[in-house]
Amino acid sequence: MPLFEALKKYHEKKVTPFDVPGHKHGKGLPELADFLGEKVLQVDVNSMKPLDFLNDPSGVIKEAQELAAQAFSADHCFFLVNGTTSAVQAMIMSTCNPGEKVILPRNAHKSAINGLILSGAQPVYIQPQINPQLGIAMGVTVESVELAIAENPDAKAVFIINPTYYGYTGNIREIVKLAHRHGMAVLVDEAHGAHFGFSEGLPQDAMSAGADMSSVSLHKTGGSLTQSSLLLMREGLIDPGKVRSIINLTQTTSASYLLMSSLDVARKSLATGGSESLQEILKVSSWARESINAIEGLYAFGKELLDGKGVYNFDETKLGVNVTGIGMTGFEAYDLLRDEYNIQVELGDATNILAIISLGDAMDSVSKLVGALRDMAARFGKEKIKIKTPPLKNPEVIVSPRNAFYGMKRTVKLSEAKGMICAESVMAYPPGIPIVAMGEKISEEMIEYIGFIKSQKTTLSGTKDPNVEYIEVLGY
Predict the structure, then answer these.
(1) What residues form DSSP beta bridges with 131?
(2) Please, what's the b/e burial string for 61-73 (b: 16 or more CB within 10 A of its CB; e: otherwise)?
(3) pTM, two decimal places
(4) d(CA 409, CA 443)
(5) pLDDT tens by residue, 89-126
(6) Interatomic CA distance for residues 225 and 257, integer angstroms
């Protein structure tokens, strides 16, 4: 762990700081130091020769990145301290110039939409497979990618999600082969798949499948600190020097050594003990899924939905539970678990909740969740309800996200916006997938679903109006 070890050596020297940050090893923020511990603030330091420079690494950061590339089967690795958002944006900006096409599923995270704005790329949306019972989008089929390529042979890249928020994947290896036959780069949002390459019991990771770039949220399922991430790439279609230049357009010059050293430690942990740890986690996840499915009214979905197409594989550490059978929305169950059972799950949507089981979990924490769900079903269980699910069909794109972002705008009532072109995005967060994005025609279905989300008192974001009563559209 070269970076982590260098940081520890710096701390042992007890350097007297006359550089930034201004809290000077925590002495200027005693309350925070008391709460977090003095050592945390003592190693919250600025770039210097012994600790290397993230924007142009040549020492311990470079060595740590090379070790990470090796661990994740990549040729190059870039440490990022602005989350996988910056990685997704860098992937799109590294492969697409303004006006060039990128093929991608519409259930991509908002960072991909923002990447289109920054790059000026034109999206070609492919329809992901959907599950109407659960109200969620799954992976994309090889056939849908093939059709999009045939209709857009000038596209520069194919962007796919591996896995979806709920853990499902498409046939990534075949999609990579297909895109490469047509000279297109393959970009993979692997935000929720940082652990894939370290267990045979999990879906295939992007790099081993031959993808050109993948963005990996090591903090989500690999153990590093929140906001720390990796951008992985393979030699061939993309120039690593260009990627570094793109990253440096937006990445801070004051990178956090707390975040970067956590990437170094998490990589080492996965590389040396990830297989054994994940084997135990998968056993716990399997027990939880079986236990929940024995509770009347609850459905913990998994590999039984695989069809060899858009639902090609599944990550069993993603514990998605449909709660409509106990008369609740996922939003209600999400709030109830937090407020009455002191349990924080990853998200709630119209029909489901999602709990992420990772390296830090064990049987005691997971059994607490199962027990809470069992008690909820007994207390609140009633007749299954029909829930309004989100729009799952691809919207009509009228102008590119970039042109919508810079276009002339006016504000209208959301209730009166049907048929207009949206000039901002509306999404519930998490998962951060836009209900409507910039440049898309607003449909009645979108308006109704936004109204339903508001009635559930969940968080909507993306609009200037915090109450989402009004929305910006293109026009004078």
Answers:
(1) 136
(2) bbbbbebbbebbe
(3) 0.93
(4) 18
(5) 999 999 999 999 999 998 899 999 999 999 999 999 99
(6) 11
Rounded to 5 degrees, φ, ψ at 432 are 80, 20
Write the pLDDT tens digit of every residue in 192-203.
999 999 999 999
**Residues of the chain predicted below pLDDT 70:** 476
What pLDDT score does 264 carry? 98
Q: Where do we find the tokens 């036959």?
A: 181
Which residues on adjacent β-strands are paired with residue 300? 321
Residue 139: C-alpha distances to residues 112, 173, 313 (Å)? 16, 13, 9
- Cis link prior to 431 (omega < 30° from 0)? yes
Of 24, 469, 54, 69, whose CA–CA distance to 260 is shortest? 54
- Give the count of beta carbons closer than 10 Å to the beta carbon of residue 305: 14
Strands 409-413 and 470-474: antiparallel
Question: What ranges make up the beta strands (E) of 202-246?
Answer: 213-216, 229-233
Would you state the pLDDT for residue 386?
A: 75
Tell me how far apart the alpha carbons of residues 81 and 334 are, in angstroms, rounded to a whole number.
29
Question: Residue 76 is inside which H or E element, if any?
Answer: strand 76-80
The DSSP line for 146-170 is HHHHHH-TT--EEEEESS-TTSEE-
Note the pLDDT of residue 138: 94
Helix (H, G, I), strand (E, B) or coil at 437: coil
* SS3 label, residue 144: helix
In DSSP terms, which residues pair with 314 in a beta bridge? 168
Question: For residue 56, what are the CA distances in angstroms to 65, 261, 295, 348, 450?
Answer: 12, 17, 54, 41, 44
Neighbours of 119 (CB within 10 A): 25
Radius of gyration of the chain (CA): 23
Tokens representing 366 are: 């997971």
- Report how far residue 343's alpha carbon sits from residue 324's, in angstroms, rounded to the nearest whole number: 19
d(CA 160, CA 41): 39
Helix axes 172-181, 142-151, angle to 10 degrees: 20
Pull the structure tokens for residue 329.
């929305």
**Residue at 141: amino acid letter:** T
The SS3 assignment for 234 reads: coil
Task: Quote the DSSP letter at residue 422.
Answer: B
Residues 6 or more apart whose CB falls under 8 angstroms from that of 16 comprise none
Alpha helices (runs of H) in 230-318, residue ranges in sequence order: 240-250, 257-293
Instruction: Please provide the DSSP assignment of 322-377 as one string.
Output: E-GGGT--HHHHHHHHHHHH----SEE-SSEEEEE--TT--HHHHHHHHHHHHHHH
Residue 471 CB-half CA count within 13 A = 33
Give the model's pLDDT for residue 476.
66
Closest CA to 438 of 416, 471, 392: 471
